[in-house]
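Good morning,

Attaching, inline, the backbone tokens for the sequence recovery test we're adding to the shared suite. The designed sequence is right after.
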């Protein structure tokens, strides 16, 4: 089961400080526990490490993601189609055409109950985007891209 398979993610998390790793892995566990039959898609890009969950192997079906900036070290807990979900407490940031997120600075302040509600709606929307049921896969971890060049944290 991929929740226990952290090999690739831990390899990509090596350059980050331990407190970032701890928070990111905690967020990963939070989502996997709620949606164990979805798939984890990992993108180790030049400016951020991002991983998200999808009922398929397609980024367009992603309902939730975690991203860590290589230079800012900001952690985003986001919704790929966040513009389509209700946010009555106005906690989500972002004004673009689709992506919305919260900044996670401390896992103890993470609004778990509220995020569970948003995750439920985001997952439902994601499933509606899947037109061919044969695309649905269960419980896989898939590395989608690895960038050769990585931005390094700026030195003070």
């Amino acid at each position: 089961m991929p929740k226990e398979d952290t090999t690739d993610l831990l390899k990509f998390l090596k350059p980050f400080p331990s407190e970032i790793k701890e928070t990111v892995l905690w967020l990963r566990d939070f989502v996997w526990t709620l949606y164990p039959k979805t798939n984890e898609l990992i993108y180790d890009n030049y400016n951020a490490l991002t991983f998200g969950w999808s009922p398929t192997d397609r980024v367009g079906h992603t309902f939730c993601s975690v991203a860590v900036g290589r230079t800012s070290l900001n952690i985003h807990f986001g919704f790929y189609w966040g513009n389509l979900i209700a946010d009555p407490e106005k906690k989500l940031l972002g004004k673009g055409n689709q992506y919305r997120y919260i900044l996670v600075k401390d896992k103890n302040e993470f609004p778990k109950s509220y995020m569970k509600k948003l995750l439920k709606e985001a997952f439902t929307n994601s499933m509606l985007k899947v037109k061919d049921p044969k695309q649905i896969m269960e419980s896989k971890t898939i590395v989608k891209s690895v960038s050769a060049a990585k931005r390094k944290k700026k030195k003070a």
